Amino acid sequence: MKTGINVGIAGGGMGGIFTGALLANRGYQVEIFDKNPVPGGYCQAFKRKGYSIHPAVLRIGSESCAKMVEGYCRQAGMDKLEWSRYTEYYQFGEDIKINQCTDRMDLELIRYFPEEKENIEAFFLEIWELYHIMNKVFENSMTLKGLTGREIEKYIPNISKTAVQFVEEYFENNLLKNIILAMLELDDKSVALAIPMTYFEIKGQGEYYVPQGGAYHIILKCIQIIEANGGKVHRNAEVSGISAGNNKVTRMTVNGREYEFDLIVSGIDINKTYRHLIGEEYVANKKMLMQLKNKWKISKSCLSIWIGFDKTLEELGIDYGSVIFYPDKENVKEIRNIMKTEGESLPEGYWYQCFTAFSRDEMSTPAGKSQMCIGILVPYDFQNKWWAGEQYKEKKRLLVQRILKDVEKHYPKMKDSYVYVEAATPLTYERECGNTGGAYLGFEKYQNFVYDRARHQNQGLFDNLFFAGHWVSVIGGVNGVMQECIKTANLIMQKYPLCSGMQEYKLFEQQDGA
Question: Which of 80, 265, 426, 490 is the most buried (most CB within 10 A)?
Answer without folding.
Answer: 265
